[in-house]
Design goal:
397 residues; alpha+beta; Arc Repressor Mutant, subunit A; 3-stranded antiparallel beta sheet; WH-like_DNA-bd_sf
Amino acid sequence: MNPQDQTDRALTGPLRREAVKKNVAAIHVSGKLTLLQRKLSNVLLLNAYDTLIYQSSHAIDARTLCTMIGYNSNDMETLKQSLRGLVETSAEWDMLDEKGQQEWGVSSLLSYAKLKGGVCEYAYSPALAEKLHDPKVFALINLDIQRRFTSGHALALYENCYRFVRTGSTGWWPLELFRRLMGVDDSAYYETFKHLNAKIIKPAVAEVNKTSNIIVTPETRKMGRAVSDIRFIIKKNPQLSVLELDDGAGVRNEPIYEKLRAQGVSDRLARQWINQHGAAHVAEKMAYVDGREDVRNRVSYLTAALREDYKPADGAGQGAPTSDRAKQLARLRDLVASRSPTQRDADKRLFMARIDTPAARLDFENHGWMSALNAEAIVAFWEDLMPGALTGQGDTP
């Protein structure tokens, strides 16, 4: 399968598995990843999961990847930096195999990553791919939950605790290991448990319990008078249950499922959206996107439309705009066309500096001055810049 066939395989939900009877073993990933890199790592794994042990490489549209993580889809430098960090980060495991033999291993989190033609291609080492694909070893993270996190330490704690959700406890971790999982093992300040507890453990536990689908409670034990080990007791959070996928039998009979698949949406992502939002809501957003003729990447835009709950504005996606709006858009096109290339570039930069939400920024990046989500702000911007130009009461250059 070529990379383009895999484009937009953006996965957003954990697999539904039967309870594993044996203890879950965890892969420990260095905690030095930034919050953005942790989110990126989870998106890439979810995207690759279906073919993780059968394909040597995987691919996803770069703009879709940026949209799912929630940052500027044109910011390729940040994406490059984040991918570089994943290649430089190690994943380590130390566990019993099925025959009871001890197995230790270490691997780069990604064996390579590259950006070419708007597509992000990447790969895992065969040994790590085998572990990541085994639900007894590694648990997939729900992206709707990870988006809620604002702290890298909290997301790191969540990931390392969620791996053990079926067993109810992480088991005892030496403090040295815990500091490494939190990414503070090279700081002398956090060698003192008082500092570690106040600055890392307590804030991270509070955010996990408030934000995620699990409740964690830390317990410590001492060697002499000093704390030597820590573990976390884990319970499901009844207020935030996991968005699990069903077996697909019912969802695949929904008409909207076939429409999503026809546009290149993966099977798991299509089921995730329908389970999470409902078939009617997904159909509504798909109709909205279909009504936007200038959308370049339909899956990326639909991802944002569902996440940010885009709604038609000024008739967008509902047929022709009103006569007044049509006249205003015509004046806007003429006004923009009358500006020099340097002025047009400056106008866009000045307006984008005023945009304060990812959804509005993405809409402007896709549609420019015709952006429906920014319609009112665009009118206000040009009214400030050239009073009366869009109302027909001023002089255009």
